[in-house]
Amino acid sequence: MSLDSPARGCRDTPVLKERGQREVFCGLTGIIWLHRKMQDAFFLVVGSRTCAHLLQSAAGVMIFAEPRFGTAILEEKDLAGLADANTELDREVARLLTRRPDIKQLFLVGSCPSEVIKLDLARAAERLTTLHAPHVPVYNYSGSGIETTFTQGEDACLAAMVPTLAATKARDLLVVGALPDVVEDQCLSLLAQLGIGPVRMLPARRATDLPAVGPETVFALVQPFLGDTHAALIRRGARHLPAAFPFGEEGTTLWLWAVAQEFGISRAHFDAVTAAPRARAAKAVAAHAETLNGKSVFFFPDSQLEIPLARFLARECGMTPLEVGTPFLHAAITGPDLDLLPEGPVISEGQDVDRQLDRQHAARPDLTVCGLGLANPLEAKGHTTKWAIELVFTPVHFYEQAGDLAALFSRPLRRKALLTAPIFRPEISRGPGQSPGGQP
């Protein structure tokens, strides 16, 4: 287990706080992975046709599909105040629940248009919960991209659920953050082999599996962008287990060890359970570290995964982070990763995109991790980029995905090397009096 810390980490590094023009992606995007995770939930966006087009494009919805999300479109008369938006919303929700009796949880998701006209969706959710109780609880959260980054959609969704969770006095482990089903199964399998249980998940796959929360609940985050959910659980009396995030072999081992220590698991048993998957993860990462070792990386603030990913790339792949930008820096959540991140990079919070672009151009990193809006312009200037959003949509947590995570960063560098390599032109043998092309 890699428990050695660098001589000096980045927890006490002065943070460059920037407040200016930002490149952000809409928080509605979180619905794309949440609706797949929560199998009996429905996400109803109260927004415009643009919101609907965004979700359909991002999800790649087929015309015959029956997705668990939709858009209640605000028309011109709604925006002008000529219609009672609440009455229309009640009617649309009633039609939806009548047509889809499989829905057991309904989320009213605010958007930029609904927030501009001050539509009170929180009160609407309370009213609709009363109307449709006890069969379908109705929650509300904002997916607006006006002031937030796209991963905050999941944070707002889970934070909205926490106050409604049942109370318990049982000692449980709560794993918080949406994971693909296959990754969640791997996580639960490792915890079961360690002898840790009972284990609950938030979000749960079905409403009947929602966890209860109380003063004996300890929770571990698997996503670093869950600041509001973290605060909501603490208000419910639960206790957070700080740990490095389970990215790569080292991060996964440290995350599991933090949980194991809390539940009194011996080091010998821990090592016996984790030895084989750790070895597989280390081998898979090493195959890509050959490409990444010695290369520099620059993170624009986008997903809030930047700090633990920088730790992974620096310590397991041999890369040198030059700047690690993050939309929000939550020391209680990312502190263990900051402790392990070797001193050196600029740590920035927030964004002034023009100033950060200037720093990126001056640094000339081998790889730049950024949002979709910056990637193509940077590629046009000769920079090699990685889309930050791909790191959220791809399974990257825990041991079995460690190699896939490293591959996401090595692939752009390998592509760049192939594109810039000189074209091999075999020399044609020629006899006396022939030209280089072989012609007399």
UniProtKB/TrEMBL annotation:
Binding site for [4Fe-4S] cluster: C26, C51, C112
A GO term, aspect molecular function: oxidoreductase activity, acting on iron-sulfur proteins as donors
Cofactor(s) this protein requires: [4Fe-4S] cluster
Manner of cofactor binding, per the entry note: Binds 1 [4Fe-4S] cluster per heterodimer. The cluster is bound at the heterodimer interface by residues from both subunits.
Gene Ontology biological process terms in this record: light-independent bacteriochlorophyll biosynthetic process; photosynthesis, dark reaction
Pathway annotation: Porphyrin-containing compound metabolism; bacteriochlorophyll biosynthesis (light-independent)
Pfam families xref list: Oxidored_nitro (PF00148)
SUPFAM superfamilies for this protein: Helical backbone' metal receptor
Domain of life: Bacteria
EC number of the protein: 1.3.7.7
Keyword Zinc-finger belongs to the record: no
Keywords annotated in UniProt: 4Fe-4S, ATP-binding, Bacteriochlorophyll biosynthesis, Chlorophyll biosynthesis, Iron, Iron-sulfur, Metal-binding, Nucleotide-binding, Oxidoreductase, Photosynthesis
Ranges of residues in domain Nitrogenase/oxidoreductase component: 26-373
Catalysed reaction equations from the record: chlorophyllide a + oxidized 2[4Fe-4S]-[ferredoxin] + 2 ADP + 2 phosphate = protochlorophyllide a + reduced 2[4Fe-4S]-[ferredoxin] + 2 ATP + 2 H2O
Role according to the record: Component of the dark-operative protochlorophyllide reductase (DPOR) that uses Mg-ATP and reduced ferredoxin to reduce ring D of protochlorophyllide (Pchlide) to form chlorophyllide a (Chlide). This reaction is light-independent. The NB-protein (BchN-BchB) is the catalytic component of the complex.
Quaternary structure, from the entry: Protochlorophyllide reductase is composed of three subunits; BchL, BchN and BchB. Forms a heterotetramer of two BchB and two BchN subunits.
Family per similarity comment: Belongs to the BchN/ChlN family.
Name listed for the protein in its UniProt record: Light-independent protochlorophyllide reductase subunit N
Natural source organism: Pseudotabrizicola alkalilacus
